[in-house]
Design goal:
Elements: H1 15-33, H2 42-64, H3 71-100, H4 113-130, H5 132-136, H6 141-165, H7 174-199, H8 207-230, H9 239-260, H10 277-296, H11 298-351, H12 361-373, E1 380-387, H13 390-397, H14 399-416, E2 422-427, E3 430-436, H15 440-455, E4 458-460, E5 463-465, E6 469-475, H16 482-498, E7 504-506, H17 509-531, E8 534-543, E9 549-560, E10 564-566, H18 568-578, H19 581-603, E11 610-614, H20 617-621, H21 625-636, E12 643-648, H22 649-652, H23 657-668, E13 671-677, H24 686-689, E14 694-697, H25 699-702, H26 710-724, E15 728-731, H27 737-746, E16 750-751, E17 760-761, H28 762-775
């Protein structure tokens, strides 16, 4: 049934329902026992009706006390309790009069004015309670006017029937009949008002509850007022004695229904397009009119039939128009519902990520702000998740594989957290996580589950991928803002990356100080570059076994005015994180090439034949990097074939833009060296994909090269690989004559290290070249 409450709580027989049922049975039994002659005292006939109305009043009060109901609905139940209380008074006054006048005919009359006043008050208060409700439920002013016209139609029809059927044949005067008519008409209007309420959406009241209340009003008032007029009763009996307990029974069942339906979802219900009660009233009046005309003669009957036919035609025409309006209204409602669905879709699209369907940054910040507003109710933590080396996957395998990977990662993160935690994609490969009710120590367990979930291989468009993520965690505090909380999580996330990736870090003030120190150092590095405070040194690369110079590797040094010597291991990572490595690397390249060209002009063939420059992964991904190298070579006039660009395995492992840049350099004539080989990803596949001419074996394999150590085995394998691939092998970090001799014996012909020369400034290189020239025979 449309509008019905779905999932109403299981029925349970309450003492109140048992009581009203027993009272109803008692009322019927006593009434029937006294129908033909008085077999019990008069008070016994009235007592069930009085008790029943008291129970109805108490039931309405209990329904009004339900805290889950809206304020307007609770007020309505209290007003219904007042209605029932007035009914108690009216019944009591009738009972008092009946006890004092046992021979009087039942029903209202001049001797029971107090009872009639109470009954009129009952129906008046009921109308006062009901009439404002449709306006509160969204019915327009036109609906109120329509209700007034319907009510007038019903009132006239009922008054006519009551007068013709009952009062006209009784011995009542006009003064005596007026209260009967008023009570009956008001009771029917109250029932009509209930119908209007049922067509609106009164919060907390379903249709069955409203119908039970409408039945209570109609049975109690109409039955009590009309029954004595339609059915001849012996003195001492009245319809109130029989119908008032029925009215109370309806009211008690309505209150019980309201209590059981609290908090249960109601199905959407379509409003009726028109009320049938006025048409029923007009039809009944027409039937009465035909009956009267039939008894008055043929002429009156003909006129009556004509009037009735005209009335029917007008009604049919109006109903037809109303049905057309109803169909138009249905179409309009369907369009409105469709627009509402579109609005919901647009709202969802505006607050969720298209790819993963997670919350987006905007919604995440809103939820974070709401969580911070209730920080006093419990702890709140925010985590920032960033996939490690995701760009390499995008560049090497394509964005389609990257998107498929992100979908799987999003699902695994959702499955690793609780239902009330909020997961969002903040952009790219960065995810946000809001953990309600968890402090930082407790939240680390959730982060551990996420790390374990992400560690499992991911199948994305036919590729099996291993993914790691760096996670930063920050706990909220009173007065925190979403932006500051995100910033702290970001600080912790970068700390996790610095500690080796694939792990999590929790924000603390020490991390803040570390980041502040890094930021300060980055600013000082920027100023040092602008002011020319950085210098270059050069370490020779020599031939084995004679130690003759083949080339030099360019290294950067920074001697700070206050800090003293700052190691490249400290400021180079900061430059990479801040992007300063791009201008810094360009300065190193241009300065080194100009220096090499100057040595060529000064020393000719005795100058170093090659100069090596280290290039970071960030530089390789920079758009137009190959063009910048070409411009630097043109500006210096240095031969491209004598420039060696040194890159690490990690910088080119993912391929993509970095590999394309290296290929552009090779086409230019520049040589490429894989630096620190063996310490990064150590993929031999790199030797096939990367256009490398030189393989620089890391110092860690040279340190223990003596004897039959594992380092010697690896060093031997690498020299064999380079020989097979026609590459030059350079052993780095040679510090002793024994290491140099062993390397030469293994097949190495190029090396560098402190055993041959330390990194030295350009002036010292020039001195060495001058000495070498002076030692040559004339």
């Amino acid at each position: 049934m449309a509008g019905e409450v779905r999932g109403v709580a299981r029925r349970r027989v309450t003492p109140t329902l048992v009581a009203v049922c027993l009272i109803q049975l008692a009322a019927a039994a006593v009434f029937l026992a006294n129908a033909d002659t008085a077999r019990t005292p008069v008070l016994f006939v009235w007592l069930p009706a009085i008790v029943a109305m008291v129970v109805a009043s108490l039931s309405a009060v209990q329904a009004g006390r339900l805290p889950q109901l809206p304020r307007a609905t609770r007020r309505l139940w209290y007003q219904l309790a007042v209605v029932a209380s007035l009914g108690v008074l009216g019944t009591f006054f009738e009972a008092v009069f009946a006890v004092n006048h046992p021979d009087s005919k039942g029903g209202p009359g001049p001797q029971s004015g107090w009872a009639q006043a109470a009954y009129l008050g009952t129906t008046a208060v009921l109308l006062w309670a009901l009439l404002p409700l449709p306006m509160n439920s969204g019915i327009q002013r036109e609906g109120t006017t329509r209700f007034a016209l319907d009510a007038a139609t019903v009132a006239v029809s009922v008054a006519m029937f009551v007068w013709y059927v009952g009062i006209r044949h009784s011995d009542m005067t006009v003064a005596n009949a007026a209260p009967v008519l008023a009570t009956t008409v008001l009771a029917l209007l109250a029932s009509l008002a209930f119908v209007k309420v049922a067509m609106s959406d009164v919060a907390g009241m379903d249709q069955i509850t409203i119908r039970l209340l409408a039945g209570s009003a109609a049975v109690g008032s109409v039955g009590g007022a009309l029954f004595p007029l339609l059915v001849h009763l012996r003195p001492g009996l009245t319809g109130t004695q029989l119908f008032t307990p029925v009215s109370a029974l309806f009211c008690a069942f309505a209150a019980d229904r309201a209590r059981r339906a609290v908090g249960v979802t109601r199905a959407p219900r379509r409003r009726g397009t028109f009320s049938r009660m006025p048409y029923l009233a007009v039809g009944a009046s027409d039937a009465l009119l035909i009956y009267i005309g039939f008894r008055a003669g043929q002429a009156a009957l003909a006129v009556t039939v004509g009037v009735v036919v005209l009335t029917v035609l007008v009604v049919v025409r109006q109903i037809h128009a109303l049905r057309q309006n109803g169909r138009l209204l249905a179409v309009g409602e369907a369009q409105v519902q469709q627009l509402e669905r579109y609005q919901e879709q647009l709202t969802h699209k505006a607050t969720h990520d298209d790819l993963t369907d997670l919350a987006n940054r905007t919604l995440f910040e809103q939820v974070t702000r709401a969580g911070l507003a209730g920080i006093g109710t419990g702890p709140l933590s925010l985590a920032l998740i960033d996939l490690d080396d995701f760009k390499a996957i995008n560049d090497r395998l394509g964005h389609a594989v990257g998107d498929a990977l992100l979908v799987v990662i999003a699902r695994r993160i959702r499955e690793s957290v609780r239902t009330d935690d909020v997961v969002a994609r903040l952009g790219g490969d960065e995810f946000g996580l809001l953990l309600h009710g968890l402090c930082s120590d407790e939240a680390t367990d959730v982060l551990a589950r996420i790390t374990a979930a992400l560690a499992r291989p991911v199948r994305a468009l036919g590729h099996d991928l291993l993914v790691k993520a760096s996670i930063g965690l920050a706990e909220a505090w009173p007065g925190a803002t979403p932006q500051e909380l995100l910033r702290r999580a970001d600080v912790a996330m970068y700390a996790a990356k610095e500690r080796g990736k694939g792990r999590h870090a929790v924000y603390d003030h020490e991390l803040e100080q570390h980041q502040a120190a890094d930021a300060q150092l980055a600013g000082e590095l920027r100023r040092a570059l602008d002011r020319g405070e950085l210098t270059l040194v050069y370490q020779p690369i020599v031939r084995l076994p004679d130690g003759a110079w083949k080339g030099v590797e360019t290294l950067i040094r920074w001697r700070h005015a206050d800090r003293g010597f700052v190691s490249p291991d400290i400021f180079i990572p900061i430059a990479e994180r801040t992007g300063l490595i791009v201008p810094l690397g360009d300065w190193i390249l241009r300065t080194a090439l100009c220096q090499a060209a100057d040595w060529d002009r000064t020393y000719g063939p005795d100058a170093p034949r090659e100069i090596s420059v280290n290039v970071s992964a960030r530089q390789l991904r920079e758009p137009g990097f190959a063009g910048s190298v070409r411009a630097a070579l043109a500006a210096s006039g240095f031969d491209p074939e004598r420039l060696v660009v040194e890159v690490t395995e990690t910088a080119v492992f993912g391929g993509g833009v970095a590999l394309e840049a290296l290929n552009d350099l090779v086409r230019m004539g520049t040589r490429v060296a894989l630096d620190d080989f063996g310490t990064g990803h150590s993929s031999l596949g790199l030797l096939r994909t990367v256009p490398a001419d030189v393989l620089k074996v890391d110092k860690s394999f040279v340190d223990g090269i003596g004897g039959s150590s594992e380092e010697a085995v690896i060093a031997t394998a690498l020299i064999r690989i380079t020989e097979g691939l026609h590459m030059d092998a350079v052993a780095e970090g040679v510090e002793t004559p024994e290491q140099a001799e062993t390397l030469y014996r293994l097949g190495y012909r190029l090396a560098q290290g402190y055993h041959f020369a330390r990194p030295m400034p350009a002036a010292e290189i020039a001195e060495r070249l001058d000495l070498a020239r002076a030692a040559l025979p004339a």
